[in-house]
Design goal:
The chain is α/β, with parallel strands linked by helices. Among the domains are: about 70 residues, OB fold (Dihydrolipoamide Acetyltransferase, E2P) (Beta Barrel), CATH 2.40.50.100; about 160 residues, Rossmann fold; about 110 residues, no CATH class. Helix content is about 25%, strand content about 20%. Strands 1-14-13-17-15-16 form a six-stranded mixed beta sheet, with no helix packed on it. The protein has a four-stranded antiparallel beta sheet with strand order 2-8-7-4, with no helix packed on it. A four-stranded parallel beta sheet has the order 11-10-9-12, sandwiched between helices. Helix 3 packs across helix 6 and helix 10 packs across helix 13. The structure holds iron/sulfur cluster (2 copies). One iron/sulfur cluster (SF4) binds next to helix 12 and helix 13.
Amino acid sequence: MLKPFRTFKGGYRFKNYAGQPAPVLIEADIPKQVVVPLRQGFSSEVKATVKAGDAVFAGQIIGRDDESISSPVHSPVNGIVENIKRMNYFKRDINMVLIRTTNSSREITRLPGYASEWWKLSNEKIEELIYLSGVSSLDREGIPTRFKSSIVQPADVNHLIIHGVGSEPYNISLDLLLEGKNFLNFFEGIKILKRLMPNSKVHLALNARKPKLIEQFVKLTSQIEWLDIYPLEPKYPQGYDEILVPTILHQKFPYGYSAANIGIVVLNIQAVLGVYKAVAEGLPLIERIIAFCGPAMKENIHLKVRTGTLLGDLFYGKLKGERPPRVVLNSLLTGVLMNDFSLPIDRSFTQIIAIEENNKREFLSFMRPGLRRDSYTRTFLSKLFPNIKKIADTNQHGEERPCITCNFCEEICPVGIIPHLLSKYVKKGFIDETIMNYGIFNCIECGLCSFVCPSKIPLVKYMKAGHEKLIMQGCDQAQCILPYFNLKGLEEYRGVTKL
Ligand code: SF4
Ligand code: SF4
């Protein structure tokens, strides 16, 4: 059933940015070597099931651990294992499998027992295929199966939210993901997930600015009473679980924990398509569609890439100039800043954004007309020229300046806290119950306040610092959450996120 348009208070709609990825998909070459982290997505680290010198084929499981919450990891290529060693991977020390490719065929060995007529399979087989494919590790809480792939059991899931809202400044193209047969495959993927989680109500959240797509889904699902469709405003950070759950279900979120702790699973479109591919086509998760975008890229496109491919190989020849000042993974506002191009990509990659940045100080920059920047845009000029493309440069011009109490950060904060006030407390070292009562633990670290601040104050950094100092002083976030929620899988969630 189609539900009325919904949105949330606060947030920010990013419009008209230079360097958006075009709905074009290019298949990257099979890499000559891959480096495969034995921990990917929502999973603890798994044990290697191969050793140096072993021959492996594309799709073969090379690491699994059925005792901990995890999902198997596969070889993305046909080749020889050269080494297994611990390496630093995004500030975590993880075992990596180094494989040299010996045959660049694109063939992928399929999982045994898959069926295009998936409805004929038993539930047990469907869960096994989802687990063995590795797709169960996608998104923030994984996909529950009877194996230890998530912190909840499939029967305990009350709500399944699938989102394709796209509220970041740079998103994977929804039209590309759902083009051709993928549109129906996606729907089959939803039906598989519903079969897996029989007690769940399914909520499909779509971008309200895509009326044709919404109409197609409404037609397709008109006879289905277990699925509702929600047109949502594509306002950042609508895609965050903390915002999606209250917007759709009108219920509170246990900040600092996972939606799965309250019996809700949130998945994106690539995860649902991955479920279909695992069950109906037997494909393990060794390829990702990644948006290569931003004003510092020569071309703004999507690449289909084997996991384990080194970033340096992918970037070769794609950047304007020698090297961009700033490359960010997965989110312009909250993503990891890339400095080491020798690292490989894994299942969790969605976007690689390259931006040109001007760090030079500009005299009275906050008073300049905001035609091309976001934190300066509250001028009449930006309204007069709405079609001028903006440059997403993360607004690091000049140095931090005093707060001018413009309240912009307060207006856009999606969880209704007061960033400028909290940052002042933290800066002055007033770390006590006051900042707890002002809701510092509710900060979801979306980065919006820092992004829009015209004085360039790194507000989110102060939020994180205040949060950490409170915990060091023994103020546990759980004190604010646990009395109000009956959380499931608490210890398991802590176990996976701590590793
Ligand atoms: S946006 Fe920046 S300058 Fe404006 S109130 Fe917030 S901290 Fe102060
Ligand atoms: S205070 Fe936290 S939740 Fe609010 S805008 Fe800043 S980073 Fe986002």
